[in-house]
Design a protein that fits this description.
Layout: E1 3-13, H1 16-27, E2 31-37, H2 44-60, H3 68-77, H4 82-88, E3 96-104, H5 111-121, E4 124-128, H6 138-144, H7 149-156, H8 162-176
Antiparallel strand pairs: 1-3, 1-4, 2-3
Helix pairs in contact: 2-3, 2-8, 3-4, 3-8, 7-8
């Protein structure tokens, strides 16, 4: 099966139980939705890179997960175990999320249909395609990814700022996630 990126939306999650049901229902329509907490998105390039790698995993047959949204979560978390990854991305009401939508190549649903449905379901507030919605929490990102200050200092020698060093460390974790 080949997948493609259907698009990215942003919204504040209001109902965890309902969103899990909606995600399951969309899977029956060959639509796969990953929810990424915005506080962990240090840079959009990381999200785009992880999406690209997850799709490439399926294209080359090295995917660990059976579904693209789970493969994306594995990559973004830098993990190789699905249970650990789901704990890493535990859903919380009231938080802003990037809503990553994957479609099977022959899916008949499009981003606008999904956006309208999510707005009408009231599972999310403030559904938008506007990209600059994520506000990273650097200390939480460092903790969640188990990045040591020694790692940051070592990588920071090659870059001007701490944020860029953290971004490079996370990109390496994404690339190497399935080698564990």
């Amino acid at each position: 099966m080949k997948y493609r990126l259907g698009g990215i939306l942003y919204g504040v999650l209001r109902d965890v139980a309902m969103v899990e049901t909606i995600i399951s229902d969309f899977e029956k329509k060959r639509v796969y939705i990953a929810l990424i907490p915005c506080w962990i998105v240090i840079d959009y390039e990381i999200m785009q890179y992880a999406i690209y790698i997850a799709l490439k995993d399926f294209e080359s047959g090295i995917n660990r997960a059976k579904k693209p949204h789970i493969e994306l979560l594995l990559r973004l978390a830098g993990k190789d175990q699905i249970r650990e990854t789901l704990d890493f991305f535990k859903l919380r009401e009231g938080e802003q999320y990037a809503i990553i939508i994957f479609l099977e190549k022959d899916a008949t649903v499009d981003l606008e249909n999904i956006k309208v449905f999510l707005k009408e379901s009231k599972v999310f507030e403030e559904i938008s395609e506007y990209e600059n919605q994520c506000k990273p929490h650097i200390d939480d990102i460092i903790r969640k990814h188990n990045i040591s200050f020694r790692e940051i200092d070592a990588v920071k020698r090659s870059y001007e700022d701490t944020r860029t060093a953290i971004k490079k460390i996370i990109m390496e974790k994404i690339a190497l996630a399935l080698l564990k």
